[in-house]
Amino acid sequence: MILHALPRAAAWALAATSLAGAALAGTAGTAAAATGGGCAGPVTKQACVTLIDDGGRGGDILFEARSDWPDAGGDCRMRLVAFDDTTGWQWERELRRCDRPLDYHYNLPNPTAGHRYRAELQILPNGKNFEFAEFVKSPVLTY
Known about the structure:
Layout: H1 2-27, E1 35-36, E2 38-40, E3 45-52, E4 60-67, E5 77-84, E6 89-92, E7 96-97, E8 102-108, E9 116-124, E10 134-137, E11 141-142
Antiparallel strand pairs: 1-11, 2-3, 3-4, 4-8, 5-6, 5-7, 5-9, 9-10, 9-11
Signal peptide: 1-33
Keywords: Signal
Protein name: Secreted protein
């Protein structure tokens, strides 16, 4: 009888060990690898998108627009726009004067794996519409 129970006990032990290993692997953080991203544009007008690693959960996407362009003129307006090119989603800040320093940030928590994100600094020289507009686009970050 002992000879029949030994293989069965060994099989149960092996199954329990495998299930425990799978459970541990399933509870570990699902860190997504990001490729691309960074900044584009001259120092006076930049758009950036980066991954902020939070130590295991995967991180957040940070969209930024920076500008220091004192001779732009009082009519000029600009803003940061964040894009998810995969779904078409976008988020935008209010328009600000171009002749004042700009440092806009937007933090996107819980980004979606496989999506393509980018930041854009939109510059409207006449301040009202997109005629003669300039678009400074960050490199695409794939999460």
